[in-house]
Amino acid sequence: MISIKNLHKSYKMGDSSLHVLKGIDIEVGEGELVAIMGSSGSGKSTLLNILGMLDLLDEGEYRLDNVMIKNLNETTAANYRNKFLGFVFQSFNLINYKTALENVSLPLYYQGLGRKIRQEKALEYLEKVGLKEWASHLPSELSGGQKQRVAIARALASQPKVLLADEPTGALDSKTSMEVMALIQQINNEGKTILVVTHELDIAQMCKRVVTLKDGVIVKDEKVKQVIVPTHV
Amino acid sequence: MFSRDRWQEIFQTIRKNRLRTVLSGFTVALGIFIFIVLFGFGNGLKNSFKQFFLDDATNTLWISPGKTSKPYRGFKANRRIEFDNSDLKDIQDNFKFFLEDITPRINRSAKVKYKGESNNYSFRGVAPGHQSIEKTVIMQGRYINQDDILNKTKNIVIGRLVAKDLFKEEDPIGKYLEMGPSAFKVIGIFQDQSGDREERIIYMPYTTRQLIEKNNDKISSIIVSFRPEMGYKTSLLFEKQLRQFFKNKKAIDPRDNNGIYIRNVADQIRQNQQFASVLQLIVAFVGIGTLIAGIIGISNIMVFVVKERTKELGIRKALGATPKSVIGMVLQESIFITALSGIFGMILGIALLSNMGDRLERFFIIDPYIENSTAFVATFLLIVFGAIAGYIPAKRAASIKPIVALRDE
Would the pTM of this model clear 0.80, i.e. be above it? Predict the structure, then answer.
């Protein structure tokens, strides 16, 4: 599903440049649940951004579902993001003046679907994350865990190949973290490929594979015994 | 552009971001409103300006003699030119085509007595034509007529203030005023809008005046009015021919500018109108300044709006919004708000102007108005520039990487 070879990325900081990713090689198959671990500054977020086509790579090769991701212009990148990827952010990034339902149907709007289908689908995914009754609520009326579940529903609504989650539990307490991780495991079990960036070991251990980054290189890449989160805590 | 979904998105953002909408709408409406009001006031100033100069008839030429400054045909320089009755007749005979009316004027002043009261007043010996040229309004009795001229009657027409000064409450008509050894019968009282000085004048037949002065035939100046349908250009021709005629008749060097003076009121009006146009230009300048200030205002607000929405636009981009759709959305919203509030401000401004009338006459603003086309163009300009002003930050926002927009504060 994801194939990365010899990926390099550096950022210009005035005169000097900061070499963040120093040759990353990684293969992720379909249906995997991969945790990308590392302390801050290890380059894990940069890697996720490149995977998410939110940032460009300097050197190397990136294939997503056998499509070469290279030299994309903004419009193609936007279309690929819409078609291939779903994002879950630490700070949820819901649009605060839109209801849960409208937030979830937004990627469908950009897919060019009709209003009726959008609403049906969005409602379907809200039901999946257990928030059907909250469809008409604004993000400000939801708890942190609920917001993140809406964000997950939104990321799933466009039926992406890969779900990218950047510290999905970073802003949540441990109980709601468990709920969110249970949801992610459930989605993964249904066959979705998911990458989770985290710096928390217990979160990483809820995945099936853990890739550890340090100073821009992969220092460890191992399959782990997945800690299954009970669905109802 | 016209998709229902896009409009729904826009109406939702407008509804959910009232402050922003009201702020930008208010700026645009205020800008266009001030522009229209200022421009209208400019036109109002021009109107009152016109009124000031409509006091005397505009189709008149004032011919007065001067002193030559060049020797010519055996005459020395510095010769005083004089008009007499033959000049009147010559104009009547030679310029029939142009002429509407003609009157001589003999200016004198004299002490006048009635019972105990006495005072010095200006006298004007005139012909009946003088009434229409000076736009003299008879309040009581009549003006000098042709009989008076032929019979050299001792009839006079006195100004409103002369009557007030000398007769107090008494009715002056038919009463006699003493001037030197003779008595003159008051046959009419007039008023004149030009002011107090004009209303302290006494009119008499010019022939009577000449009779008093040892029966000479001298006149001080000649006023002719041309047919109004002639227009400005023809009046200049008339003026030129008159000048040539008099220079020839009075033996004045054609290059001498001092022998005879002709004042063309139409020409003066034209100059005044030019002055009024300059006035309008200044007002237009101020108006355009206001418009530019409005454009800058809406630009600032657009920058602020886009800045405020950076995160939202980043989210949209992460969800698959293309740069084009982001720009389109921001632009369409801004054009919608500017157009709506621009038209609102325009209607408000026009409504204010049309209800003003002469309420601001104290400030020399009468019937302010604005041409509809000017108002439309100004509104249109503001909308276009508002769109351009919105486009630049929208484009920048659309090109920001979503990762930058989404970075946690």
Answer: no
